[in-house]
Amino acid sequence: MSHYSLKERSIPLDSDWDVIVAGGGPAGCAAAAAAAREGCKTLLIEATGALGGMGTSGLVPSWCPFTDKERIIYGGMAEGVLKKCIAGMPHVAPDRFTWTPIDSELLKRIYDDLVTQHGVTVLFNSFLAGVECNPQGRVDVVLVANKTGLSAFRARTYVDATGDGDLAAWAGAPFEKGDPSGDLQPATHCFTLTNVDLYAYQHCGSIRRSERGHAIEAILASGKYPEIPDQFVCNSIVGPGAIGFNAGHIWGVDNTNPLSVSRALMKGRKIAKAFRDACAEFFPSAFANAHLTQTGSLLGTRETRRIVGDYYLTVDDFLARRTFPDEICRNSYFIDVHHKHSEIGTEKESNSAIHLEKGESHGIPYRCLTPKGLSNVLVAGRNISTDRTVQGSTRVMPVCLCMGEAAGIAAAMASSKDSDVRRVDTATLRAKLKNHGAYLPDA
């Protein structure tokens, strides 16, 4: 690829911010709301037209568990978001905190309210386009592209909640990506089927299992639906006559490569149509008249960059149920690494999930949020500092909400002093989180 040198020119600069958050998924929403709640003038930059990331624009049909099988451990803002979702879904029991269905339109409004009630300014349809950083590792401005053209925004501290670690990586932070060969976990393109007979759906068995055995195996064995790539299927009732699907892997996708994502989205739409037709054939009592209403405007990306921070969380920390003096949340989701296509159905795939026991969890230290080499940047979400295996646990939405709330408070604390995120007093940070309902048992 050849290169083009930009002509020197001036662009508008908005420098009136204490905290800027890049990315409006769960981590970014919580970070922005928490920073603003601390009294900071906060800007949230989001590339799409809605907040919420995979739970809204990505159409993920259910939350991963919020409990350690004994109690809710994703407290604070995370618990508040979950309970507002439950309250707005009459078909969901008020105490269903495990695999809780998601009404994506309801969740969009919940996130809108979360950030606006604390005074966050949101820029939709605005892409992070670049980062200007000084040699000492201090981000000076971020560049943003939208309908006004290219603009610069400056804050005292920044939170990278892009999922892909764009801000931190472009500022020069070290990162890892995929396995040693560069292979990434497969993506999924979620979708929604409507006009489903829910009585029949609830009594005929799921698409994964039925009284006749594994229905998805029969679908694949029929050979009629070659677009359906494998047996991966999760689905939930997300509204009246509406079933949300997280189904079908798409391999070879890199969310930092727009061409790769574009091809995957087209492929995902074909997979969704094939699932609709297969369901209609194999479960006609429920799906005969089903309508493919929507596919996600975001691809379900599980893995790209992992920013290397001051602490590198490992699978050994997970297995040891380790506690840290500076931990900002607990996590109990199982190790859930989705495998290469060549490993599907093999012993390696079947033995890959690692679960914690009832009441068990591990800590995530604040140092996983502080990128090496950068002084005024925090990361939150699936891009924090971990090894690849444990990232299969820390990448999901409940823990991302908790990391985001911690990052937002910490960014506010840093911005009020010298903007050095390493000088944040973690005892004070933990006390603030506990005051807002976080689950942080004493070590």
Can you walk through the features of this model?
The protein is built from 13 helices and 15 strands. The protein has helices at residues 26-37, 77-87, 104-116, 166-170, 198-203, 215-222, 258-282, 284-287, 315-319, 347-350, 388-394, 397-415, 426-435, and strands at residues 13-22, 42-45, 121-123, 127-133, 139-146, 149-160, 175-177, 191-194, 233-239, 242-247, 291-295, 305-307, 327-331, 362-365, 377-379.
Strand content: 15-25%
What would you call the structural class? alpha/beta
Largest sheet: 7 strands, mixed
Rg for CA atoms: 22 Å
Distance between the ends: 53 Å
User: How many E strands?
Assistant: 15
Give the low-confidence spans: none
Helix-strand sequence:
EHEHHEEEEHEEHHEEHHEEHEHEEHHH
Morphology call: globular
Proportion in helices: 25-40%
Count, helices: 13
Instruction: Tell me, rounded to a whole number, the average pLDDT.
Output: 94
SSE blueprint:
Layout: E1 13-22, H1 26-37, E2 42-45, H2 77-87, H3 104-116, E3 121-123, E4 127-133, E5 139-146, E6 149-160, H4 166-170, E7 175-177, E8 191-194, H5 198-203, H6 215-222, E9 233-239, E10 242-247, H7 258-282, H8 284-287, E11 291-295, E12 305-307, H9 315-319, E13 327-331, H10 347-350, E14 362-365, E15 377-379, H11 388-394, H12 397-415, H13 426-435
Parallel strand pairs: 1-2, 1-6, 2-3, 6-15
Antiparallel strand pairs: 4-5, 5-6, 7-12, 8-10, 8-11, 9-10, 13-14
Helix pairs in contact: 1-3, 1-12, 12-13
